[in-house]
Amino acid sequence: MSARHLAVSLGDRSYGIDIGAGLIDDPARFAPHVGGRVAAIVTNETVAPLYAARLEGTLERAGAKALRVVLPDGEEHKTWRTLDRVFEALLEARVGRSGVVVALGGGVVGDIAGFAAASYQRGIAHLQVPTTLLAQVDSSVGGKTAINHPLGKNMIGAFHQPVAVVADTATLATLPPREYAAGLAEIVKYGAIFDVAFLGWIEAHADGLLAREPQALAHAILRSCEIKADIVARDERESGARALLNFGHTFGHAIESAAGYGTLLHGEAVAIGMAMAARFSARLGRIPAMDSERLERLLARLGLPVEAPRFPVETWLEYMGRDKKNEGGRITLILLDAMGRGAVVKDASARALREFLEEAAG
Amino acid sequence: MSARHLAVSLGDRSYGIDIGAGLIDDPARFAPHVGGRVAAIVTNETVAPLYAARLEGTLERAGAKALRVVLPDGEEHKTWRTLDRVFEALLEARVGRSGVVVALGGGVVGDIAGFAAASYQRGIAHLQVPTTLLAQVDSSVGGKTAINHPLGKNMIGAFHQPVAVVADTATLATLPPREYAAGLAEIVKYGAIFDVAFLGWIEAHADGLLAREPQALAHAILRSCEIKADIVARDERESGARALLNFGHTFGHAIESAAGYGTLLHGEAVAIGMAMAARFSARLGRIPAMDSERLERLLARLGLPVEAPRFPVETWLEYMGRDKKNEGGRITLILLDAMGRGAVVKDASARALREFLEEAAG
């Protein structure tokens, strides 16, 4: 099976990402990590019927003893209760420290499985097999794992790098169109903050991407992971450069909170957030209006929303201020200094932001 | 306030241990770590009335905004439910990533508070203020944190080094005698596995130690932490040398399991376990019988039990086999090759072990 490979350099936590169609059927991708070990596939009710048996077969052929933990599907299950089902399954099967957790699914499964691996017996290995576009370009790279707490999203977790990521692009065929487009939003993000040439490539291959064409997908995922890995390598514990990855997210989180989670997909809220951040950048004179229009046009062409919902400015500011990366009551914004060059801005004018929100979204 | 200081070298996770009488009243010990931050004191119902208000005052004088989380006392509360009380308190107070958890208490408090710090917002700083002898010489060094799971002790946790340890020897004055002696057992352990000169020093200062004499205590704690830190620095993630620290623990865990937790203190079970491991070492010809008798004599003089309880050999082997450090069904034992020189033995004769248990403890 042909595949693209990317090495993520993080010292003794380095790992590789394989990207290609049909990889979940290829034992060679898994053997170095699971051979002779117990491999616990953690997945959900939606993904299990589609891919769990196939992956189980592959892991067994790779020399593992496979077991399966099927969780309920949905962000509302990203809780301690669900996490504990993973612990219970591992303990009941007497999985030791040489065991490996294999996350098969989207971001929620990856987050729960990753945190389970991070904390089971104080840390065992885990491998990510992301089956959504969003997870393939975002959540399976970077080592962030977490569960939600009734008092806040992603509040309990760990930084725990996987030993490998196997992104099978063929699994994207079963994704609903909205979820697929939400993944494309994150791909656009990487171009916007880091690589204007990649942004141009996305524009040139928008049709191929919309058609889920394997070659185009493989390149888009590879380049996205490369950019994310590059940024994460500079700032594994999220103290500086990594904040760039939040482009579109500060506005986006506010939109998700105000609209109620579940109304919009995360990627959709981020698409609107990116359009807003670009427009605000233009308003501050950081980029020409032409550039923010270019970004909006691309997002719209990929089937993503770009219009800000209207709600009171105070609500916007309240929700935007809740992000855990904010310091001292200041809202940190990721803006653009040029297409392909994001900037972490901690001192944006509060008045300009307020005016912008009143006009555009108030 | 006079204090002894020990630097624990673990690269970018290095930290210092301060040891001395009255340190919890000295803001200078805390200021570098808590100044300008929220410091959440995590403690329990027994320790809180004794020391929480004093430590709170010290932290405030050190420039922190202090808050207090009081947990129920006892190993049976080392659960997710109790851990969640810490998360709730942190979230309700909107503690951010710059917050610091300050563990005030024994091993259980340290374990829960440490794991809370390890996983709150994917990891914030924590500081250990151990108030039991066992915690001062053992659990506050090494970065192991955990909670229990209904299916196994210490099964959910993290390696998370503290930013500092402040061991106030004056807090040991309030320890019940049995708990105090249980701490002495761990001190003897360090001498037995690593430093025969220190073992000799303990013998020479047994009366001072039993009288809780500050100078003797400070030296014993410092040297114990030094030895533990030395071993941990060689093997932070517990793959090799760190197993030496389990001297007495494989037999000890079996005793705790068979006797039912709570009957014996952990340190008491370890004392018996060390006596057994030494006797078994002598039986295998690794050390002269004189040496194992010397160790037993010292333990007994410090008020610790050394006689193995009698229960069926199969039960011994079953419980000894459950330790998470065992591999492939083999029981790993820590034996002595000489006084002051422990050895990790993975290939001890199963027949010899069985015979020894039948005679000594069957």
Task: Walk me through this protein's architecture.
Chain A is an alpha/beta fold and about 350 residues long. Chain A has 2 domains: about 5-175, Rossmann fold (3-Layer(aba) Sandwich), CATH 3.40.50.1970; about 175-360, Dehydroquinate synthase-like, alpha domain (Up-down Bundle), CATH 1.20.1090. Chain A has helices spanning about 30-35, 50-60, 80-90, 105-120, 135-140, 175-195, 195-205, 205-210, 215-235, 250-260, 265-285, 290-300, 315-320, 350-360, and strands at about 5-10, 15-20, 40-45, 65-70, 100-105, 125-130, 145-150, 150-160, 165-170, 335-340, 340-345. Chains A and B meet through α3, α4, β7 and β8 of A and α3, α4, β7 and β8 of B.
Q: What would the keywords be for this entry?
A:
homodimer; 362 residues; alpha/beta; Rossmann fold; Dehydroquinate synthase-like, alpha domain; 2 domains; seven-stranded mixed sheet; two-stranded antiparallel sheet; 14 helices; 46% helix; globular
Separation, N- and C-terminal Cα atoms of chain A: 52 Å
Strand elements of chain A, count: 11
Would you tell me the overall average pLDDT of chain A?
A: 93
Q: What's the gyration radius of chain A in Å?
A: 20 Å
How would you classify the helix and strand content of chain A by structural class? alpha/beta
Looking at the chains present, what oligomeric state does this protein adopt?
homodimer
Main sheet of chain A: which strands, in order across?
1-2-9-6-5-3-4
Tally of separate domains of chain A: 2
- CATH architecture title of the largest domain in chain A: Up-down Bundle
Q: Portion of residues in helices of chain A?
A: 40-55%
State the order of secondary-structure elements of chain A, H for helix, E for strand. EEHEHEHEHEHEEEHHHHHHHHEEH
Largest sheet of chain A: 7 strands, mixed
